[in-house]
Structure formats: C-alpha cells, structure tokens
Amino acid sequence: MSPTLSNAEILRCQQEGYNAYLEGKQPRACPYKLGTPEGEAMGDAWFRGYAASKTDRAKANKASEQTGSQ
Q1: What pLDDT digit, counting tens, does each position of 10-22 carry?
Q2: Which UniProt keywords are given for this protein, alphabetically ordered (predicted)?
Q3: Residue 5 DSSP class
Q4: Is residue 9 in a domain?
Q5: Rg of the chain taking only CA atoms, in angstroms
Q6: What is the pTM of this model?
Q7: Does residue 32 contact residue 39 with C-beta atoms inside 8 Å?
Q8: What is the pLDDT, as a whole number, of residue 69?
Q9: How far, in Å, CA of 7 to CA of 11, rounded?
Q10: Which of 21, 25, 40, 44 could disulfide-link 53, Cβ–Cβ 3.0 to 4.6 Å?
Q11: Considering its fold, how many domains does the chain have in total?
Q12: Cα–Cα distance for residue pair 12/56, rounded to 1 Å
C-alpha cells in the first residue's frame, strides 16, 4: 500500500530538494529513509525537486551563454 502524502508535504519535500541542489549538496544528502513506504514517497519528491533545480540551473546557464555571446 502506497502512503498518501498531502500536497503540502510533497511540495515541502520538493522545495527541500530544490534548495539542496542550489546549496551544492550531493543527491545522497536526501534526508529521507528510503526503506519505508513513506520515506520512499518523500524521497521521490525530494529527488524531483533536486532534478528540477538542476534543470533550471542548466537552462539559466545556457540562456546566459547565449545572451553573452550576442
């Protein structure tokens, strides 16, 4: 049975992951225990936030490079 997380919990976990990337933390810094169903769900949200931050940073860097070369 999959745990049910509230939208607020999911968003909080995603924001924590997003901020972790911006702070220069490694993916293994995920604070959630991945051996439990709830930990897995929270860890998934954390990693989604981490990946989103990484993607946003890459897009910003690319846009900056394109603007700087004009």
Answers
A1: 999 999 999 999 9
A2: Plasmid
A3: P
A4: no
A5: 15
A6: 0.83
A7: yes
A8: 61
A9: 6
A10: 21
A11: 1
A12: 18
The answer to whether residue 2 sits within a structural domain is no
Question: What residue has token string 């607020």?
Answer: 8
* CB 15 within 8 Å of CB 49: yes
Residues 53, 23 contacting (CB under 8 angstroms): no
**Residue 12 within a domain:** no
pLDDT tens string 13-54 = 999 999 999 999 999 999 998 889 999 999 999 999 999 999
How far apart are the C-alpha atoms of 9 and 58, rounded to whole Å? 26
Alpha-carbon torsion (51, 55, 60, 62), positive or negative:
positive
Q: How many other β-carbons are positioned within 10 Å of the β-carbon of residue 49?
A: 22
Q: Is residue 63 part of a domain?
A: yes
The two structure tokens encoding residue 2? 């999959």
* Residue showing tokens 């051996």: 35
